[in-house]
Amino acid sequence: MPNLAPFVVVAALLLGWQFALSDPTFVSDTLAPPSAVLFALWKIATNGEVFREIAETVISAVLGLALGAGLGVVVGIVSSMAKPIGVAIRGPVEILRPLPAIALVPLMTITFGLGLKMEVYVVAFAVFWPAIILTQQAVRQIEVQLIEVSAALELSAFDRTWKIILPSIVPYLIVMLRFTAAIALLIAVTVELVSNPRGLGREMMLAGEAFDPARMLAYLVVITAIGWCLNWALLSTESLFLRRRTRS
Amino acid sequence: MTAIADGRPKDAIIEFDHVNFSYGANLILSDVSFSVVEQTINCVIGPSGCGKTTVLRLIGGFIQARSGKVIVANRERTKPTRDVAVVFQDYSRALLPWRDVYANVSLALEAGKVPRAERKDRIEEMLSLVGLKDHIRKFPNQLSGGMQQRLQIARCLAQSPKILLMDEPFGALDAMTRQILQDELLRIQEAQKVTVLFVTHDLEEALYVGNRIVALAANPGRLSRIVDIPLPWPRNQLTTREHPDFLRMRRDLFDLTHGHQV
Question: Residue A199: which region, alpha, beta or left (left: phi > 0; alpha: psi -120 to 50)?
Fold first, then answer.
């Protein structure tokens, strides 16, 4: 018997919310009942605009994630395999890592203008640092024996990376992607909220400025749903990989 | 099986020449000298902390002596090479869990740049040698401990080594499987003409599989005795273990592994 408690709680909250705001005389610039949000959702879904905005936000989040996490994995592996490089990059990483990516928006806007490119770079910057650090940690988890096997077999640096290190860290990389995908979505939406005239963040901002809370909340629901889907997709990939690898 | 006479330096494939090894101020091996004759099975025994594994890692080329020389096939050992294979005790950590049985053995051939066309026959030959031919498409986590260790041995043999280093290879297996694999090791060693260095804490196992015992003493690790094992070949789990020489050597060497006296 599945545990129904969470569903009961959510349903109760939604009903309470609906009931509290169902007084016909109630007018608000910030709150709307679930029914109104649902109606707004239906409207943006049927006229199709939400899909264009989803595509804009998701594409910049995914491109930024691919660029930032991809480079981060490369730098993470290289710096773990070649000790001098690892030592050399430690300083820059520690200095730049705490820099909030959003603070780069003005600089990126001057450099690349508004639009997809600048959003992708800001997202990439945000995920690059955690990707490096989590990759380095993943490489450190590799069984010493496997490293020694590859030494005894005199594997080339390329083979060592491609045949031993990368497959060994795949489960960790998926966890890293799950973590950085959340950051990527967060940063993409934030860049749109702050300035970039595209995507879900921008539409949410406009709805707020037009005092249309139902529409604003509808976009919030969409963004949350994308976050869920992303997490769910990466979780399923993770369990797919882990099933084969568990040691007997 | 080759009968081994002492002092034939022309046949020595491994030579330790006054080897010292330390971690910082901690002396692990002190002035160890011995040699190993080609195509024999040599068992390194001794109490824990005597540097058995260190001896093996020096031969493997994973670490270097502080002073003295470790010579393998007439060359001073400076790094790991393909002609020395290592069988680790912890087989589950030495196999690639994302590759099936076939592909795990294939790794050794890929490393040796063996053309793809020639790999298949060689892999199948190695797998039938260790009795895994019917499990080619299984993954390591679908194999028993004994089978995983067989797989590791198959991969090591596929790299065509002159020397097989085995670090307590059967230590994690149950007694029954251990005896079966001891016999398999003897059969494989004879078929492949490989030199084996076998680290174990089990004196009876050493007497059963070895041509010779290299006994170390602890604190610091140093050579205690080198004893040739005169037991007749082929070895047999029943008769060898009841052989008067087996029982006598077991009694004589008992203290060596327990570290009471040296």
Answer: left
A170, A165, A162: which is closest to A144 by C-alpha? A165
Burial zone of B253 (CB within 10 Å; 0-12 exposed, 13-18 middle, 19+ buried): buried
Chain B contact for A247, CB < 8 A?
Answer: yes
- Per the listing, tokens 């401990």 go with B145
Taking Cα atoms as reference points, which of A101, A99, A61, A71 lies closest to residue A184?
A: A61
CA distance to partner chain A, nearest, from residue B158 (Å): 10
pTM of the model: 0.80
Burial of A105 (0-12, 13-18, 19+ CB in 10 A): buried
Which residue in chain A has the smallest CA separation from B112? A153
Residue carrying the six token digits 């195509």:
B39
b/e B102-125 (16+ beta carbons within 10 angstroms → b)? bbbbbbbbbbeebeeeebeebbee
pLDDT in tens, B15-44: 999 999 998 888 898 898 999 999 999 999
Considering just the CA atoms, what is the radius of gyration of chain A in Å? Answer: 23
Q: In 3D, which of B99, B166, B41 has the Cα closest to residue A245?
A: B99
**Can you list the alpha helix ranges (DSSP code H) found in B91-164?**
91-94, 101-111, 116-129, 145-158
Instruction: Reduce the DSSP state of residue B130 to 3 states and report it.
Output: coil
Please tell me the distance from the alpha carbon of residue A215 to that of residue A39, in angstroms, as a whole number: 9
